[in-house]
Protein: CUB domain-containing protein
Amino acid sequence: MSKNVCLILVVVLMSQASRACDDNIEEEELARQQSDEYFARAYGFTPETWNALYHKPSLGLQDAVDASPYEGRTLFKRLQSSNNPFKKYFNRDQEDNENNGRFAFAGLGANLVNTGLFNNRYTPANTWRPLVTLAKRIPISVNPNFNSPLGSFDTCTSNAGEAGICTSGSVCSLFGGRPSGPCDQGQVCCINVINSCGSIVTLNNTYWQTPPTALRSPCTLTVRMDPKFIEQSSKPICQIRLDFVSFTTSQPTAGTCTDTFQVGGVSNEVPTICGDNRGQHMYLHVPQSVNKPTDVQLIFNFASGTTISRSWSIKIAMLPCGATYLAPIDCLQYFTSTRGRVSSFNWQDVAGARQLNNQNYNMCFRTELISAQKATQMCLSVCSATEGDAFSITTPPAVLLVASLNTGFALANTADADEAAINSAVGTTYTDQSRGNGITVATCLYDYLLIPGGRDANNVEADRFCGNKLNPSPGTVKRVPACPNVEWQRVFIPGAATDVQVCTAIRPFKLTYQTDGQETAVGAATNTIRALADVSNTGFCLEYQEN
Structure:
């Protein structure tokens, strides 16, 4: 009898010791997941411990309130929700009714899944997995990691190079993911792929890919962030990063997209794009709501009567508020390396017009450390191109400076126009005040790339750049003979015929790209400065280097 009592006491003591160890492990794991280092790994980014110009890793309360908008998002500077022009594409009432009964059991199911009662936490050699099929019957509709400190959804890379999350095989199957390669502790690298129109996604590192069936228009995807579960995670989502692994639709017609990709439900301005955008990315700023889920819509519309094969694979990464790797508040694109390539949407090294109309966005560059010192300047050079033009933004005019009683404006002859068309251009307009009533013509007024404080090796400086070369040269006025017994005429030839490196010392480093809504000529009218029609503009591709 005494032996039995002793045996029971031993079992009880071992159970209590095990629980104590488990509690310590849970507390350590929970503390680890509340740290910036954990979220940096879980969301696929590496935080910088030094204080870059765009981001201050640690802000006090007053510092956070007074932070500059160029220093990234803080918890005190969240953007407010804006009107959603795409609301007609979504029936939120229907979606809420469908999911109403599911959230009640989401927390219970998430805890059961992640605490290992029926998941794949057992070693691969152990084939006894109790209740493994029960996971598929529990209606979980949100990321289970929010409710369980034991579920560490760290980021991972599959054997094929795709980004995923580390989780158990059962959880991966539960969300329709595809296991691809191992993670620690018997977990798998789960690649979550959505290949349908009209779906809702809640998981980080999800890929939205072309549906296997015939495309419908519009084809939409909703990225949903629910405050019920955000509160428990203490890390609400402030931004979504889209990476266009592949992206092919029809090319624009005279700069205007017939197939379109648009974004709704965000607080920053996102341009409509189309064409070929593989390798591009966007940062979407998410408005915050404490009463209802925040939905961001990704929307494709396709023109009829075209036979082009449309396809895409878009990686969707959800970035938590307060992280040091968020994009600055006014930046659609954000680059975080000392050197790299930046290009306009739809630019590729192919022949033909590629520039898109109605583009207006900022490209920002984190100030990096160079030999333990912050970079003091950023230099830009055109990309090497074999088929297309690496820099082609609007067509520069050659202007015959002739004073008259009417418009005081006339185009130069064909030879002069051809010379100007291959040159660079800067500034907004050119005005000759030397004779008559003054002659004004647009240069980089409607389409341009803004490089604040841009200058070449000879300290020739300009801010607005356009034309068919990257060069801050202001251009020249030359004299040409008109006809016998008539005075020499004066012709303005903008810019120069060669590309040069342009550097800026204005920090934080930022470029702004602007195009208007047409590629046709702008005629003379009241309060309108005339401009030539654009011819085969491609946009730009630049190599950047911080020094």
In short: The CA atoms of residues 408 and 439 lie 6 Å apart. Helices lie at 2-33, 36-42, 61-66, 92-99, 106-114, 169-174, 227-233, 414-421. The radius of gyration is 29 Å. The longest strand covers residues 237-248.
